[in-house]
Amino acid sequence: MGIRQEQRDKRRWEILEAALDLFISKGYGDTKIGDIAEKADMSMGLMFHYFESKAKLYEELIRVGVSAPASMMEMDSNDPLRFFETVAAHIISAIKQSPFTAKMFVLMYQVQSNASLPGPVRELLEGMSYLEKTISIIEEGQKRGQIRPGNAEALSVLYWQTLSGVAIYAALKPGAPVPEAEWIVDCIKAHSH
Fold first, then answer.
1. Domain count of the chain?
2. Does the pLDDT value for residue 193 go beyond 60?
3. What is the DSSP letter of 189?
């Protein structure tokens, strides 16, 4: 990759970070394209070379937010407990290393309860079914005695919402301690007495 492309990619990323901060603090509707340009320290004209509209910029952030869980669902789930350990470790590590990751959880939480989403964003969210996909992994783990007994959907909700809650807290309280991944897995893990 050439220096010019690296600079372009870096600038694009700076715009995404600026927009993410504004979308989670002000909301989509109250964030103006000029606010994003100002926060990214560029002119609106230059910003339009990267994203043709606020809607396209928002759509790109949602695409990032949907693709990360989708890629995790591609991980090997032949060992259910190991799957949940790996996913939790990956997410906790990303939260610790990058404020952007934690902030994406805030945005995705807000998006899921927003009834006035642009059509393309709604379509992106329809493909986000990681919670449902993990139900069958939990059921398999229960058969193997790795996952605690109980309603598999409720356990899936417990696991994902715990991870999400940790990320949201980290986004809202930078520098706050982040729990270990195994603590999160422990909430669904079968325990021998």
1. 2
2. no
3. B
| CA separation for the pair 186, 168 (Å, rounded) | 20
Is the pLDDT confidence value at 130 over 70? Answer: yes
- Give the span between the Cα atoms of 137 and 156, in whole angstroms: 9
* 180 phi/psi in degrees, rounded to 5: -75, 150
CA Rg value for the chain: 19
Same domain, 125 and 157: yes
pTM listed for this prediction: 0.85
Domain with 11, as residue range(s), is 1-52
Q: Specify whether 169 is located in the same domain as 81.
A: yes
Could you tell me the pLDDT band of residue 1, with boundaries at 50, 70 and 90? low
* pLDDT the model gives residue 143: 96
Question: Element (H or E) spanning 167, and its range?
Answer: helix 152-172
Are residues 97 and 181 located together in one domain of the fold? yes
Q: What is the 3-state secondary structure of 112-130?
A: HCCCCCCHHHHHHHHCCCH
| Band of residue 72 on the pLDDT scale cut at 50, 70, 90 | confident
User: Are 90 and 135 members of one domain?
Assistant: yes
Bridge partners, residue 147, by sequence: 189
DSSP state of 147: B
- Rounded average pLDDT over 89-93: 94
Enter the tokens of residue 119: 């059509």
d(CA 152, CA 56): 37
Nearest to 23 by CA among 107, 119, 95: 107
